[in-house]
Amino acid sequence: MITLASVIDQFQDDFLSEYQNRLRPNQISALHAIKRCRTQMSPVMQVNCADCDYQTFVPHSCGHRNCPHCQHHDCQQWIERQVQRQVPADYFMNTFTLPAQLRPLAKQNPRLVYSMMFDCAWATLQSFSKNDKQLRGDAGAIAVLHTHSRELKYHPHIHVVMPAGIIDKTNKLWRTKQGKYLFHHKALAKVFRAKMLTRMSEEKPPFPAKIPKTWVVDCKFVGAGDKALIYLGRYLYRGVIREKDILSCIDGKVTYRYQDSKTKRYQTKTVPGADFLWLVLQHVLPKGFRRARNFGFLHPNSKRVIKLIHILLKFDPAKILRTLKPRPKFSCKCCGGAMIVGRRRIPRVEIMSQPVPTKMLEPRTVM
Q1: Contact between 236 and 292 (Cβ < 8 Å)
Q2: Per residue in 272-296, pLDDT tens?
Q3: What gap in Å lies between CA 218 and CA 198, rounded to an integer?
Q4: Per residue, what are the HEC states of 48-99?
Q5: Which residues are CB-neighbours of 367 under 8 A, at least 6 positions away?
Q6: In angstroms, rounded to a whole number, what is the distance separating the alpha carbons of residues 272 and 164?
Q7: Mean pLDDT of all residues in 124-136
Q8: pTM of this prediction?
């Protein structure tokens, strides 16, 4: 399998010479972090067997949220937290897409535009929930920002998973809406557009010459919501491309595959190595910017409210948690026992006299 680190190692010089003037500091940091991930350049951690005296050193992962083989544990933890907040209601996936005419503005001011997208998407859904005849209350939502299409093109959009249920604070009621219809997508798009343009007039960024009258918002029924949350969680911290989708790296070009959103069939695309790295690194978010956010009664500060809903409605999200696969554990190569991390972030100079494997220890099932 071709790793992203090997592609960076091969084309880094060409990439920097061609795109140096377009790179932000956080993108350069991501480039260097992914290149060093789990290699002889990275620090190591010491792992010891709990059952025997076996000890070894393992290269550290870079931990960068754009690295395709890091942060799997963070993904699992995020999914578990969101599933624990599930409520007994039908769930919907609302997708708010930024028009092509505003994408250059988002590239120039990513922190500002992405923040406006989050705020306006939530304000739109909150207003619809309060005005809906069957709901008439405060909603809750889980929002995740994606900046790429499956082809790796720049395509900022926000997925918002929300239950068709609200909390009526005035009457202290839990109210739900039945059926596979939540809100009209064209009406959502009109309100989202109006709110975005209002915020832009307040912030006064450089407006494009033309702003389309019709924007795109999708509202899709997703059942109990657990599958939608797992789908978003799987791609939350793993970068924009899986390494198994990098098919070849020859003659100065990289070939990768992607799934066409309409036909659901895999397509391939071949681009110069430097251009491929730009396709990947253009999606690095500003430092400290939160890609996933919770709103309303699904906010982390509302744990007591969610717990009360679970008790009163006799809803147990633990049933769904039991279906999730547990994180694989390190296994001892000698006896098969569990390996425990003893020290972390050990500089290479301290263990130069001891062999360090170039790959992580493989999980092993002990019978």
Answers
A1: yes
A2: 999 999 999 999 999 999 999 999 9
A3: 21
A4: EECCCCCEEEEECCCCCCCCCCCCHHHHHHHHHHHHHCCCCCCEEEEEEECC
A5: none
A6: 46
A7: 95
A8: 0.87
